[in-house]
Specification:
The structure is a homodimer.
Chain A lengths: L3 E5 L2 E2 L6 H16 L7 E4 L1 H9 L8 H16 L2 E2 L5 E2 L1 E6 L10 E5 L5 H9 L2 H20 L3 H15 L9 H19 L7 H15 L3 H9 L9 E6 L10 E6 L11 E6 L3 H6 L5 E2 H7 L3 H16 L3 E8 L2 E9 L4 H14 L4 H6 L3 H8 L2 E2 L5 H7 E4 L1 E4 L2 E7 L2 H9 L4 E5 L7 H6 L2 E4 L7 H9 L3 E3 L5 E3 L4 E4 L2 E4 L3 E5 L4 E4 L4 E2 L5 H13 L3 E5 L3 H9 L5 E5 L14 H13 L3 H26 L3 E5 L13 H11 L3 H11 L11 H6 L1 H20 L5 E6 L5 H22 L6 E6 L2 H5 L1 H7 L2 E4 L1 H9 L10 H5 L20 H15 L4 E4 L7 H9 L4 E4 L4 H22 L1
Helix pairs in contact in A: 4-5, 5-7, 5-8, 6-7, 13-15, 13-20, 15-35, 20-35, 21-23, 22-23, 23-27, 24-25, 27-28, 28-30, 30-33, 34-35
Amino acid sequence: MKYVYFFGAGKAEGDGQMKEILGGKGAGLAEMTRIGLPVPAGFTISTECCDYYLQHKQTYPKSLAADVKKNLARLEKVTGKKLGDAKDPLLVSVRSGSARSMPGMMETILNLGLNSKSVEALARNSKNDRFAWDAYRRFVQMYSTVVIGLSKEELEEKLRAMKTRRGVKDDTQVPADGWRELVGEYKEHFKKKTGKEFPEDPEEQLWGAIGAVFGSWMAEKAVTYRRVERITGLLGTAVNVVQMVFGNLGETSGTGVCFTRDPSTGGKTFYGDFLINAQGEDVVAGIRTPMHLDEMAKHMPKVYPQLEKVRKLLEKHYRDMQDMEFTVEEGTLYMLQTRVGKRTPAATFQIAVDMANEGLITKEEAIDRIKEEDIDRLFFPIVDPSVPKGDLAKRKIASGINAVPGAAYGKAVFTAEEAEAMAAKGEKVILIRRETSPEDVGGMFVAQGIVTATGGKTSHAAVVARGWGKCCIVGCENLDVEYESKVAHANGKTIREGDWVTLDGNEGIVYEGQVKLISPELPKAFSTLMGWADKVRKIGVRTNADTPHDAVKAREMGAEGIGLTRTEHMFFKDFEFPEKSVERQLAIQEMIIAETQAARRKALDKLLPYQRRDFSGIFKAMDGFPVTIRLIDPPLHEFVPHDIEKQQELARKIGVDVEVVIRRVEQLHEANPMLGHRGCRLAITYPEILEMQVRAILEAAVECKKKGIKVIPEIMIPLAMDRKELKLLVDATNRVAQRVIQETKVKVEYLVGTMIEIPRAALLADEIAEVAEFFSFGTNDLTQMTMGLSRDDAGRFLPDYVDEKKAGIFANDPFQTLDEKGVGMLIRMGIEKGRKTRPKLKIGICGEHGGDAASVKFCHRVGMNYVSASPFRVPVARLAAAQAVIEEKAKKGKKK
Amino acid sequence: MKYVYFFGAGKAEGDGQMKEILGGKGAGLAEMTRIGLPVPAGFTISTECCDYYLQHKQTYPKSLAADVKKNLARLEKVTGKKLGDAKDPLLVSVRSGSARSMPGMMETILNLGLNSKSVEALARNSKNDRFAWDAYRRFVQMYSTVVIGLSKEELEEKLRAMKTRRGVKDDTQVPADGWRELVGEYKEHFKKKTGKEFPEDPEEQLWGAIGAVFGSWMAEKAVTYRRVERITGLLGTAVNVVQMVFGNLGETSGTGVCFTRDPSTGGKTFYGDFLINAQGEDVVAGIRTPMHLDEMAKHMPKVYPQLEKVRKLLEKHYRDMQDMEFTVEEGTLYMLQTRVGKRTPAATFQIAVDMANEGLITKEEAIDRIKEEDIDRLFFPIVDPSVPKGDLAKRKIASGINAVPGAAYGKAVFTAEEAEAMAAKGEKVILIRRETSPEDVGGMFVAQGIVTATGGKTSHAAVVARGWGKCCIVGCENLDVEYESKVAHANGKTIREGDWVTLDGNEGIVYEGQVKLISPELPKAFSTLMGWADKVRKIGVRTNADTPHDAVKAREMGAEGIGLTRTEHMFFKDFEFPEKSVERQLAIQEMIIAETQAARRKALDKLLPYQRRDFSGIFKAMDGFPVTIRLIDPPLHEFVPHDIEKQQELARKIGVDVEVVIRRVEQLHEANPMLGHRGCRLAITYPEILEMQVRAILEAAVECKKKGIKVIPEIMIPLAMDRKELKLLVDATNRVAQRVIQETKVKVEYLVGTMIEIPRAALLADEIAEVAEFFSFGTNDLTQMTMGLSRDDAGRFLPDYVDEKKAGIFANDPFQTLDEKGVGMLIRMGIEKGRKTRPKLKIGICGEHGGDAASVKFCHRVGMNYVSASPFRVPVARLAAAQAVIEEKAKKGKKK
């Protein structure tokens, strides 16, 4: 087993492809060496060795000692120096480096090889006492803290004390003697704390450093970082042992960090910082203010063009924007590291588009480089990064799940009614609820943002807010909301109605007061790249939209139709004439309370014109694109009031005894409403509801057709589980539709299809397809039932299932990213069986997963015709759909 | 298309196999004719003709008129008489007859062919004026009511008036003249009501009668009967036109109904009733008291031996007990009808066993003749059939779903506590609740019967009661239960606590007061036949039992192990020492309220000895048979009190602030508890619960082994959905088990398996089987999730789905009889995939379906190792398992 890889003098055993084994840094150094860049020589101990080390109680493979010895000898030969040598000592840095960047998470030791003898040699050879003793004290400090674990603060305290004694302020003012004195103090401290002398033997130093780097892989902060960033499947960190070069040998030396393009805007400018007479950590530490690269160009006119050359070479070689570290040692440039540079979402688009236009990458590669979150973050306001962290910490009230990104502030309100009332006065409000229900939709709509104490990323609040791209934080478990007194408590703070609060939906944090927000702008490159994606993708992208407003928004986002219009929100909210909402609510409630079919029909007749107008508006907005309208889905109890005052009010308004209302509400209560009397089951019991809705759809279509608007309504029956059940309802739908067509003498083409959201429907899709003209997978419910998970309740335990540190059963929350293994199996079966009966069956998805990149790719792979996502997720779906095609090609290419 | 089938003079066009087309009666007459019995001649118009009639707006096939004419001519030839003839008229009966017996549901017209001329001929020829005019008035009466639909009561009124006028009491005392007078009045009435003369033309009469019989198929009462009896797939009724023979021609004539064996006991005695000088309807009407057959033997010494001969011939021919109708016309025996006789459950067993012993049928046929409900009804008390119906009607309070058969009375109580308190004083109680929850189990256990206002056949109340074979009526929707005032209202009656009520669980009716009940005895033939079944069946039969008491009961019922022990009931009820129940409840509640793992462990430590004793008791009772113990399954909120008084009490007892209790209870509330934090998800969050339970199981096993009792514990982890999830828990289980084995140095063999009750688990059964040593399909939950049906809520709409008159989507309630198509598909997949990984994987079922005959047969067909049923359903499972083998053989036989 080869554990150590050498690089130096233009040759390298590893290369840039070997990230998994050499880590990003090691692979980069090997690759840079190979392509002829000036790179200090060294060797990399592989991540496989780290894995061995961690698996074997922190011991090394047997061969390692000999390998390190051999490579060290080779390094000494290449550099012409010897580790610990009293005449011309070799100094090395020992750095961690994993396959995926984990900035600041693991350890580095510089200037290793210095001891009481070699420091003198270094002083002699550099003719710089001060430099040598500064280097030595840096090494002793790092070794003491990183390898041995002594307190950094205590050492810093000694440094401060020494400077105070000497009356100097900056490190640069400390004379050689000061550093020498400090080294002595450090060593004394070391002995006091460890009972041992500070190691003189450079090999002992080296092994200590290697162990420290390996060990840092499992340090709490590193483990947490990987968990948060969802970094899994890595073996460990590599250790890079590299010849030290010094940027702090005077005015002809220096060190810098640079990006081949501007990481903020993506602009084609060479972007970076340079510090004269400094070591790398000085740049990172941010104590001295570095110069920009153009200043450096003036200061080092010979070196800068070399760096420019490297920049071009690297971009050409790596075909991506690079983030490089370099050092200039007495006028000689050394490249220390290169990696793909992090960038803002706007820069991501700009760089991808520019590079494709430059011919550096293909358009497909450009598409492939955009990530889901790059799009997410483009659209939403954010907390101004210039707001001091301390200020934020002081303002923090509660934290929860960042259900919908973005940021917003407004005055706190605790009821939907109050939200509407205050919004009507022009106030910005934040709606804070324990949880939300369809009754709250009006208030949610007018709010700047929504906070709930309960629920997960797919709770009612999250789903509705996501549809509107409205900042939303759910599951703030420490937030104690008291409706009666209209206050919320958390973190020792109290929010009263009317108090300003700010939501950071990116982080899931609620702040008190108004925190400064900024709104990013959509870069031009965004629409360029999305246009490219549209040309590549094969699967359609529709949107979930319940209002003309949403429909328009979704069209702007590139939606090619509506995959899901939920009609139930319309029962509560008149989006065009909000003042008419009350009439709608009353009509639906009257219908529910009614005890005879005749009374129900009477109430439904009142709703008909409203629904017709709703549909008409959506048809107009989609102007010829298909519109899928789902018939009423939620259980009726969601539409009736549950508190006695409102029940009394309702009874009075519809002219029945309050007991009738109470009894009916009680009757409607269900133990498990998710699996209860809802979806098409309502239409089996109350066919008149279906009849009203179908009539409204058809009449709206007729109205539009008469105005010359093209309309393609797709009537979708939810929650079907059986062919016979669906047939009854499809027949009823066609009866009403034909009646409207006969009455109006306007021919309307329409489809009648169903949602596949009950496992049984997927299992029996061949039969279902006999009567359904299209399928739309309702993956929210299909996930709930296939996995036996209530999405409203799963917050109690699902986090444990996803948390790697706890059970770690699932890689992702199955309500965010489709569970391909289980739920996906049913989807595959459903598609296969459905198309067996009806080969051209149109199949889509309208669950939340339609806006999740990984899930969209799955939908492409299994052969769906389209996905449907909430308006703000439409671009993600468009991109992912294109990436799916590209991935498929790549896979096929590999097979060949 | 042949629509008419002739029989007579020893020959018949049809035969006994043609029930579907000729109806039971027609096929019987044809068959009896063929085997040489004395049968009056006639012809049968087929059910296919009825189907045509109903499908074609009550018109007949074109060919029918000619066919009827031809067959009528043939009949006239065979009998030597002519319909409507003025000299020797042929009289016929016109009767309905469907493929399945629907007694009293459809229509009959006798003496057709009489008119003002032929009645005179009949009088002449029979030398019996009175007989002829009586026959004529019977015909006019039947024709008027059955064919024309005139009021029966009005005609009866005229009959009564005539008798009053003549000062006679019984019909037999009416002279010829009286009947003639009445015929006149009837005809006048007919004209007044219809505007037409009563038809003289016999062919018009005949067609009127045919139409009436066909039409009666869709009469409300017939449709209802078929729905209730689940009779589906029939074409309609046949019409039998048969030569009239008269039992009312004097002392040498008569009519009778008899069974070839005693339908009550199954005894081998010829059993029947005979009326001298009477027509068949007189026997059925029950106005005159008939003589028993042995009296008839004395009265008609020549005819009786012929009847005895017929009896033997019929049993030999039909190989089953027959129910026959016959008439003796002036000393000549005519067989009018034969069919398989209805019998009591006890007789069903007796006859099957006797016939097998007699060699008339095989043992397998004997097994195959027992139906699920024959067993059901064997075990339970019933309302004494001698209680007058009127008395019952007056006592009726409410009706609901007959969840568990049987009957019981007791004093009404409305809380489980009160039930326990009163039962402790030796009172019989009936527990009446809106719904039940695990907290009520103690009270349910001591009650004689249970009534709930809500819920369906698989609600908590129904499932628990069924397990104990305890009479239970659920879903009494009109029952208004007021807990506070301790009363229930329904049907204008009020039940107060302490009032006597009687439940008829067979019919689902609640009566006020104490209604007389009788307890059927288990016939010896039962155990004989069940023994035969056990030899035939291949699949094991276990039981669902939670207590030693249930386990003993189940062993008596023939269970070969326990397939499901639910441990949650044990948390509420100490079945051995009821007074200790409170301690258990407190411990589990303390565990739930605890805020740290340490506190939870402390509470669990208190539960450990109880659980150990529970398991030990069950192991003892099963004495070497395998015992499957399911770890805690229900969501924790089911274990905590929801009303403030009890919460305060709990807080006081466990020494925490009541706010802590309230908050915890609120936290535990779930929107959809079925899909929530329950099953093995509890063990993922709280591994200490699993650890306590596994320890209790293993320590109990050790205890038993030390006493020399063989123990095979099978530890079952509920609600698994993923291999990784299950592996975590299997590993934890094994760790604890091995620890106990090491501590005690007693080796215990045990298995660790899982329930397959989430669709995903079935879909991924191959992976699950890598870590599970057995599967038990939890088909209650699997049905809920696969079909998206909450069994607690489905009562709202599922009846519509099963109701043929409404949607009629499912043939059966899927919670009673497994949905083979959908849920069954997942089960097949689960078994196939599971055995692919682990070929000898032990697989069972422990849902309610394990006690349903059709579902047990499915389990056999898909290759399960065993089914598990509640104790009282064990015999049903044993029988069905045997029948499955027999059906399989028959199928294979057919294929060959």
